[in-house]
Amino acid sequence: MEAVFFDLGNTLVKERVSGEAARKRMLDELYRCLREEGECINYEALKNALEKGFKECTERVKGCFKELNPEDVFKRCFESLGLTFDEELLRKALKAYFYGRVDTVELYDDALPTLKALRSKGLKLALISNALPDGKAVYEALGLSKYFDVAIFSFEVGLKKPHPLLFEQALNALGVKERESLMVGDSLEADILGARILGMEAALIVRNGIKVTLSVTPSYIISDLRQLLSLLT
Question: Among residues 212, 134, 161, which one has the least CA distance to residue 5?
Answer without folding.
Answer: 161
